[in-house]
Amino acid sequence: MIKRSYVTFIMCLVVLAAVLVSGCTGSDDTANEEEQQEAVEEPSAPEETEADDSTFSNSIDMEFVKIPSGDFLMGAPEEEEYSDKEERPVHQVTIGNDFYIGAYEVTQDQWEEVMGENPSYFTGDGDLPVEKISWAEVNEFIEALNGMEGTESYRLPTEAEWEYAARAGTETAFWFGDDASMMADYGWYDDNSEDKTRPVGMKEANPWGLYDVHGNVAEWVQDEYHSNYNKAPTDGSEWTGGVSRRVIRGGSWDNAEVNCRSAARDSIGEGSRMNYIGFRLVKEV
Question: Nearest CA to 160 among 107, 219, 239, 216?
């Protein structure tokens, strides 16, 4: 009886040991299977992010902002104070393609880096806008810059592109409104310039990120001058077939604030080199 109980006890121990061994083995196998499943799972692909092309800087630190295509009313209505008949008729212009335009007027440092000399009358700070450069000399600068950058995409803005970018979606006399007395916050003109140019970008930018579109230096554009907008292009292209003068826009440190309005325009011979005329560039997309 004792022997049988002993045998039964031994058998129970054997069965218990077998069960325990079986349980441990199963646990290891399960763990191994889970590890293998984790190992074969492919990592999730990173989320794609859209490249930000809203701004652009070139090799000489000229900063550009991207201007979206769109429609606008070019010129000034008769009811706009101090407007002139050469700014009429007001007409709709369609800018069919996005383009980059300089956030700032071209500086003396940038001109000198490309051309090797500084022709400006006002000096002492490389961030002053370059001036005393003719329309023809500006185009020599553009040709040299295109060569440096290995492109053909730099040029002067057309008159329509300039006004479209300066207005930045507004229809008022200035991009900041109709009140000329506010000009001191937004541009350099005869009452606050102390009769000289100022470093670019010291006043507030317009809603599209352009500085000094009102005042500082007037800016060369591509177009020949016409005395009004009758038969002007409606697609934003260069207007040729005018008199032998080129358009300048934006007014300058030497002008009254009313001559720095978004629609204000003037002209001068393309060989003229004045200390109140500079430029900013377009880069085609």
Answer: 239
Query: For the ranges 29-33, 94-98, 118-122, 136-140, which has the lowest average pLDDT?
Result: 29-33
- Residue-level pLDDT at 10: 46
Reply yes or no on whether the pLDDT at 49 is more than 60: no
How buried is residue 217: exposed, middle or buried, by Cβ count under 10 Å (0-12/13-18/19+)?
A: buried
CB 243 within 8 A of CB 228: no
Q: Which contacts qualify for 148-156: CB closer than 8 Å, 24 or more apart? A: 148/59, 148/60, 148/114, 149/58, 149/59, 153/283, 153/284, 154/281, 154/282, 154/283, 154/284, 155/222, 155/281, 155/282, 155/284, 156/220, 156/221, 156/222, 156/279, 156/281, 156/282
Structure tokens at 199: 């470093």
Burial 67-103 (b: 16+ CB within 10 A, else e): beeeebebbbeeebeebbebbbebbebebeeebbbbb
**Pairwise CA distance, residues 129 & 253, whole Å:** 11
Instruction: Give tens-digit pLDDT for 65-86.
Output: 999 999 999 999 999 999 999 9
Does the reported pTM lie above 0.85? no
Is residue 244 a contact partner of residue 267, using CB atoms and an 8 Å limit? no
pLDDT tens, position by position, 183-195 = 999 999 999 999 9
